[in-house]
Specification:
Length: 68
């Protein structure tokens, strides 16, 4: 019962003070910088590997090897 009374009085005090505290919202003077260091190396290598594999399959005689 005592805990409930403390909780209710705390909530009441917080509600009463909420209207008394001035809140200021101000834009920063410098622009916000979002640094996205994304490593895309793996994706590029996979694409190049697939392109090279397709090229070799479509041109089997490219290096003087037998045609399939």
């Amino acid at each position: 019962m005592r805990t409930r009374a403390i909780l209710l009085s705390s909530l009441g005090a917080a509600a009463a003070l909420a209207g008394c505290i001035p809140v200021q919202i101000q834009a920063p003077e410098e622009p916000i910088e979002i640094n996205l260091n994304v490593n895309i190396r793996q994706e590029v290598i996979v694409r190049l590997e697939r392109d090279a594999q397709d090229l070799l399959q479509n041109n089997a005689d490219l290096f003087g090897g037998p045609s399939q």
